[in-house]
Every structure is written in C-alpha cells, then in structure tokens.
Amino acid sequence: MLLLAALLAPRTSSAQAVDASVQGVVRDSAGGAIARAEVEALHAPSGTIARTSTSADGRFLLTGLPLGGPYTITVAHAGFRPVRRSVGDLTIGAHPVMPFTLEAQRVDLPKVEVSADAAEGRAARIGGSTRIGRATMDALPVLDRNFTGLAGAAVGGAALARRATLDLDRHQD
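Above: the chain sequence. Below: its structure as tokens.
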C-alpha cells in the first residue's frame, strides 16, 4: 500500500539551467537612465555574440549565454563614449549584475545639404494635374459638354464615363 501511495503521489522535478545570463542597468554620468543603448556580449572562445538594447529605465538582460568565458560586454549609445568590461567564466545559473555609466561624447556629424525645386515632381506627388480651358473643351469631339462626355473621350475613359452615368442615374430624383 505504501508503495502504491508513493507511485501516485505528485512529483516535483527541478530543472537545472545549462546556460547563464548577464543583467544590468545603463546610466549617464548624472545618474539618468539611458534607453535604447546597445548591449553586446562577446564570448571569446566561441566568438558567439548576444545583443540586446536597454529598456526605458536603462535595464538590460542577456539570456541564453554559453557557459564559460571570458566575455566582453560592450555598451554603446549615440552621443556617449562606448564602455567595455570583461566578465570571467559564467557558470550554470549565473546571473551577474553589471551597472554601466556612459560619459557624454561630442559627436561631429558630416554636413548635410538639402535642396529641392518646388515644381520638380509636383505632378507625381499630387496626381493628375491637367488644366482644360474653355477653348480646349469646345474643340473636343464630344456630344455633350459635361464631365461624363469628357471622361468618355479620354483614353480608357469609356468605363469611367459609364460608371459616372450609372452613379448619376442612381442619385437622380
């Protein structure tokens, strides 16, 4: 009976992690969180690279890292000097916490010159833009001098003219 109870009793099993992770927070020299900083972990023996970016509060978490080491952790963000730090061997279930402080760095960007012609490409941006004057309208070979007649005279406009006529017929009293 005791054997049967032991076999039917709920079992708990514990899984062991076979990888490691590195977590931390990235701040500027004034202590403010740096969001969207790029964090990279390079596992030197294998060349494996893991990447992530920091959250709005400057935190990051790199998971699934191969065991062993050493690792080089690099944190970078535009306008700041990148910081590299080494971590020794990571063991099973290791979760070292690494705070980083980035110092502001002047960034000289190349000069960008923007120029445009207001008329250039205007037709492509706003669609068809043909103006038809009274003299042109009178010279067109159409029976009636209204939109449906003009649309029917255009190349491929016969279908448009039929559609416009149908729409007009439907809305008439």
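The longest helix spans residues 157-171.
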